[in-house]
Amino acid sequence: MLLKKATTDQYIKLFRTKGESGLYRHFVGNGIIRAATIPNPDIELLDLADEFFALSRRRGADKEAYFLIGKALRRAAHTLYRQFLRIKEDKVLNPRFLNTVS
Q: How many domains does the chain have?
C-alpha cells in the first residue's frame, strides 16, 4: 500500500494541529468507529504505521513528523487490538501485535 501525497499532507496537518497525543486519540476514536464497517481496523492502522515509518526513512523534509505519526498509529493499533481481544472471544491472536504473557 503506497500512500498518496494528499494523504500524507492530511496527516501532517493533523499532527501539527493536534500533536502526537491528540493524533493518538483521533486514531483510536476513528478505529472504534471504523470497527462497525470493517473487520480489523487495528491491522489497517498497523499497516499505515509501517508506511509512515518507511516514509520517515526515505523523505528528508518531514522525517521526524512521519516517524511520530507512525508511532501514534502503532500505539493506537495496539490499543484497539487489546480492546478487541477483550470484547471478542473469537478474535485470533495476531503475531504482529504485542501480547501479554501470563
A: 1
